[in-house]
Amino acid sequence: MSVTAAKGFSAAGIAAGIKENGNPDLALVVNNGPRLAAAGVFTANRVKAAPVLWSEQVLKGGQVSAVVLNSGGANACTGPEGFQDTHATAEKAAGVLKGHSAGEVAIASTGLIGVRLPMDKLLPGIEKAAVELSVHGGEKAAIAIKTTDSVHKTAVVSRDGWTVGGMAKGAGMLAPGLATMLVVLTTDADLEPPVLDRALRDATRTTFDRVDSDGCMSTNDTVLLLASGASGEVPEYDAFADAVRTVCDDLARQLIGDAEGASKDIRIEVVGAASEDDAVEVGRSIARNNLLKCAIHGEDPNWGRVLSAIGTTSAVFDPDRLNVAINDVWVCKNGSVGEDRDLVDMRYREVRITADLSAGTESAVIWANDLTADYVHENSAYSS
Amino acid sequence: MSVTAAKGFSAAGIAAGIKENGNPDLALVVNNGPRLAAAGVFTANRVKAAPVLWSEQVLKGGQVSAVVLNSGGANACTGPEGFQDTHATAEKAAGVLKGHSAGEVAIASTGLIGVRLPMDKLLPGIEKAAVELSVHGGEKAAIAIKTTDSVHKTAVVSRDGWTVGGMAKGAGMLAPGLATMLVVLTTDADLEPPVLDRALRDATRTTFDRVDSDGCMSTNDTVLLLASGASGEVPEYDAFADAVRTVCDDLARQLIGDAEGASKDIRIEVVGAASEDDAVEVGRSIARNNLLKCAIHGEDPNWGRVLSAIGTTSAVFDPDRLNVAINDVWVCKNGSVGEDRDLVDMRYREVRITADLSAGTESAVIWANDLTADYVHENSAYSS
């Protein structure tokens, strides 16, 4: 059901010819109102793609009437010409959709960096997509934004008369702030942009910002939340925020589960931290340790590499009070050898690492993947 | 010639049985004076192996009469018992060598983290090594400290009547502050500990601290510089510091050239930086980008991944003024597409990336490796 699960939205996904293999590559999501409220969060990378720079401006107005998303090219590092391409895309969508303003059309792109988009294919594609707009178009839109994703990702939560739904793409370059992802969430709840903004930031902070497949931060990350108000319902903030968080958490978990070349999903829980920031810093350091990621791939409960990663952080801890469990076996106690590592069963895809800093009561969960020969292969051959 | 190139030193390398495969695993380096001056730098990891904690104490006295190094076990994360093992090793060496004090015996260990050393093999090994001490023993000592190294690493510089020589080991877990390495440098110059300390820190800051094979910081890194004074020469500081830097640079380059699973050595030069710190931060960010490392492995001049890595730093730059060359072809100009990427010839092992921040006149060079399926294989099978 994706972005069309909530009332007031139509969507389409088509093959515009941007991808040379003829796969779907252009998605259109339209908010039919009555409200056009929106919020967005974007990559923290200082090298931002043209569509990110454009959409950041659009979101300042708090109104989004339509989103054009393309795979097959990131339109990043393409200079002023690339920005003009994004501008022209918004103008084209506004013209085709009648009554829309380019200043309320958000744009998102994904694919190879440093290559101009084939505008001779993209612009006609918008006309084609507009014709196919449908309240059942959510799945097709989710399919059209895939790059190296093996499956499309959608999630929906319905509560008392209102719904939050969404779609996501992302398989590599997943790292905090945000991951390499495009996400569009929609709701028919009747809410103002500041409320949407708060709920979206609360949700992404503990979901998309805490997945880290390969430590690489993208130039194109975009998460949008559009509200149509079509349900006529005005939910309480806490209920709405919880629904947004649930959808984001579901989509984030799907991203990790489909990360490039991965054979293991690693849930890293840091407990006993003096602060949440400490817990997140330690979790990310563990998540990014290539040697540990290789060990997990080899089903080797190499807790020494966990301690080595913790040791590079500025978090509060005493090395002699660190405890580490892998799949609930406390293989490291008080910074030294704990329970028998042969007790750790690592046959399953999900691996749980618990790092206890023994320094407080705060905690955080970071999701990561193992490092595999398939990841190397996929990313050494990507652009060639 | 290694650590015995300088006058006043003897060394040995033997198989003590610490490694189950029977390969050499214990090295002994003895300073026969007349001077016993020494300096050392150690890992910045807050989780430090027992031998690092021990040797840091020893070095505070500025006197080192002997160094015992073992491969086959890191003696890290082994608790108070592991520290007692290190202490017993120093006591044993002092006893065997006559006239030595345990407080002047430095210890260095390398191998798997979280496993106690087999002291029933290590201690008799020290007696065996002492018998084999020789002024020609430098090569054997260098061989005995290898772990996954495919070759042993030595370097020597001789100037006006004095010499600096050394040996190094390290193949994985190479990252700044320092890399996973054990290094012993010796000189017969007649210098005080503060001078040695200054020269050693000056040298490591721009050599060992600027290699980054896999972003992982070790628990055991140790670089020692021992001076015997046996040449009777007192060199000028600049000449001595230059010799130490030359030996460190040579050994650091050998470490990168032998990094686990690597097929490419990547020289990353950041120029046009507002400060040296900026240049180092940007260089390290590029060096640690897994996606870029995969691309280099695939001989793909994927400059977008360089920009993406630069964008995650706090360095001074304008995204629209970034320039990137790969093997001297400026594939990115002003943050956008530059010269034809097909002009880049990446067939050779050494790949040169130049990142111009257009923000100043400072620069730095960081050495890194590509990311390969062999790296994954070697590190997923290491302890099992």
What attributes does this structure have?
homodimer; alpha+beta; L-amino peptidase D-ALA esterase/amidase; Ubiquitin-like (UB roll); 2 domains; seven-stranded mixed beta sheet; EC 2.3.1.1 (chains A, B); autocatalytic cleavage (chains A, B); arginine biosynthesis (chains A, B); L-glutamate N-acetyltransferase activity, acting on acetyl-L-ornithine as donor (chains A, B); Arginine biosynthesis bifunctional protein ArgJ (chains A, B)
Describe the protein's architecture and organization.
The structure is a homodimer of 384-residue chains. In chain A, helix 1 (50-60) packs across helix 2. In chain A, strand 13 (329-333) and strand 14 form a beta hairpin. In chain A, 31% of the residues lie in helices and 23% in strands. With 384 residues, chain A is of the alpha+beta class. The first copy, chain A, has 10 helices and 16 strands. The model of chain A has no long low-confidence stretch (mean pLDDT 89). In chain A, the strands form 3 sheets. A 7-stranded mixed sheet of chain A has the order 9-16-11-15-12-13-14, with helices on both faces. A 5-stranded mixed sheet of chain A has the order 3-10-8-7-6, with helices on both faces. At the A-B interface, helix 2, helix 8, helix 9, strand 14 and helix 10 of A face helix 2, helix 8, helix 9, strand 14 and helix 10 of B.
